[in-house]
């Protein structure tokens, strides 16, 4: 049974009537309105929607990096009051520090808690090797391609083995082949660890390939307009994108956006 379809499963993230309003010289600017969304423990949920609809804002709220203007967010049943424990975040940009080696950039996620141990270093090296960066751990970010830098960023987020992983369009700036490669690796890692994963993307096909559920958001101010459960067998390979079922899900989501006037058919 798909994780996303389970009834009564533990809710890891509860987003309840959440709104976000920003101040501006011209007056209040609403970014989100009455967003309701439950994400079950171990579920992979993607959010798709047009630019400026509040996808990244919602992720920042769940990460505790910003405060909601209304409503509330619960993480494992507790009200959010800042970044929660057991959290990993991957942003659109890799945010690596150019004066630190790739290994030291990955270890940065544990340095906030104290001096990295030998075990931390071994785990960081193992993660880098898994993502094809084993030979580059002593290199600096400016010596690596954009795709390699983003791989290192993912390793940094995974190093502490977080229960909740938030990813904000992490592959948006990558070439198609690198993006496919990282989609496969992310799917494998999720399959092995079953972390709760909230993934922001502009790509409908990417969302369908990776997710248990795809959440659709409308134009700004952002709100949830539909949620679709993806009933495709796991583990998934890129071959699934050639199936009729995959095409059906992509077409269904695109058609819904077309009805809202967001995309053209």
UniProtKB/TrEMBL annotation:
Keywords, comma-separated and alphabetical: ATP-binding, Nucleotide-binding, Transport
PROSITE patterns associated with the record: ABC_TRANSPORTER_1 (PS00211), ABC_TRANSPORTER_2 (PS50893)
Q: Which residues form the ABC transporter domain?
A: 13-244
Q: Which GO terms describe its molecular function?
A: ATP binding; ATP hydrolysis activity
Q: Which CDD domains match?
A: ABC_NrtD_SsuB_transporters
Superkingdom assignment: Bacteria
Q: Does the keyword Manganese apply?
A: no
Q: Which InterPro entries is this protein grouped with? A: AAA+_ATPase, ABC_transporter-like_ATP-bd, ABC_transporter-like_CS, ABC_transporter_ATP-bind, P-loop_NTPase
Q: Write down a Pfam family by its short name.
A: ABC_tran
**Which family does the record assign?**
Belongs to the ABC transporter superfamily.
List the protein's name: NitT/TauT family transport system ATP-binding protein
The taxonomic lineage of its organism, from the top, reads: Bacteria, Pseudomonadati, Pseudomonadota, Alphaproteobacteria, Hyphomicrobiales
